[in-house]
Specification:
mainly alpha, MetI-like fold, 2 domains, 0% strand, globular
Length: 322
């Protein structure tokens, strides 16, 4: 097991290195991309452009520029923005990360509870009216784009019925839990529900399919032969085995969302998280901030994949030989 974990960590480091190289080449070596022009402004003269390239090391060979950027980002932590010159990238990411963590963790709790409960109820009532109803609601939730649902939620809670039904809902924004835990939860309640709606439907459908398959396995037939009730078999035996797929799915989704995949929800709901930071950097073509956000997201996605692989190896020793 130890050798498997070491191999998986080494491969994770290699993947992060490959991502950093590819992202750097896309942002800084693509023909037509001139960071010096972005820094100096539209009316900059050729002499000013040359001075900017020399000051920021943009006139050096591509490998040297890559190494310098990695040094400033990961070792010196002083990589600065090209748009807001002097603003360091790392403090911006560290300031935005708690917002994204708050959004994703709260939404994950909701979608896990709703998704698992929906999948179990649908599987337990297979063939009855509630089964297709839950699956229909799940498909509807999966099909609705996050940005559209967020706009609809904002329309009703912030505009249409804000003065009457939703007067208790605060305006868009974020409040730290250390400042006011109650306001923190109120500001994030509808963003949590908006983000959780998509994943709750997916998890309910996946778990329902896994439970239906598990109820036809040999160990379930053995449990029935022993006289166990269908409810006990479903909850104590079939559910335990079916949750393995949910664990792997959750690990990948959680890592991707913390890495910035909740961008649309953050932008629509006005949350200053990693997604919003990435969106603003894209709008301004702020390459250092984009580089930092991409590497932040890649780290959590690769970490989630590594954790899922280790859990699989722990649950199934055959995986360690792969």
């Amino acid at each position: 097991m130890r050798s498997f974990i070491i191999r998986r960590l080494i491969s994770a480091v290699l993947v992060l290195f490959a991502i950093s190289v590819m992202v750097f080449l896309i942002f800084f070596a693509t023909p037509g991309v001139d960071p010096a022009a972005r820094i100096a402004g539209r009316s900059a003269t050729p002499q000013i452009l040359e001075q900017v390239r020399a000051a920021f090391g943009l006139n050096r060979p591509i490998p040297i520029r890559y190494l310098l950027m990695m040094e400033h980002l990961f070792i010196k932590h002083d990589l600065t923005s090209y748009v807001n010159v002097g603003d360091r990238v790392l403090p911006q990411i560290l300031q935005a990360a708690p917002v994204t963590l708050s959004l994703v963790i709260g939404a994950a709790v909701i979608w896990l509870i709703v998704g698992v409960l929906g999948g179990v109820v649908a599987a337990a009532n297979r063939g009855k009216f509630i089964d297709p109803l839950i699956m229909f609601v799940g498909i509807a939730a999966v099909s609705v784009p996050a940005y559209w649902l967020g706009e609809v939620v904002n329309y009703f809670t912030q505009s249409k019925f804000h003065s009457s039904i939703f007067s208790w809902v605060p305006s868009s924004g974020y409040v730290s839990p250390t400042t006011n835990p109650w306001q923190w939860a109120l500001h994030l309640l509808f963003p949590w529900l908006t983000l959780a709606a998509l994943y709750a439907g997916i998890y309910a459908r996946v778990l329902r399919a896994e439970l239906v398959n598990a109820m036809n396995e040999d160990y379930v037939r053995t449990a029935r032969a022993k006289g166990l009730s269908e409810r006990r078999i479903l909850l104590r035996h079939a559910l335990r085995c079916s949750l393995i797929s949910i664990v792997s799915l959750f690990g990948l989704d959680f890592g991707a969302l913390i890495g910035g995949a909740a961008l649309l929800t953050e932008v629509v709901m006005g949350l200053p998280g990693i997604g919003m930071l990435t969106y603003n950097a894209l709008q301004n073509l702020d390459l250092p901030v984009l580089m930092g956000c991409v590497m932040y997201g890649a780290f959590f996605i690769v970490l989630a994949n590594a954790v899922v692989d280790v859990l699989y190896a722990w649950l199934d020793p055959r995986v360690r030989l792969a």
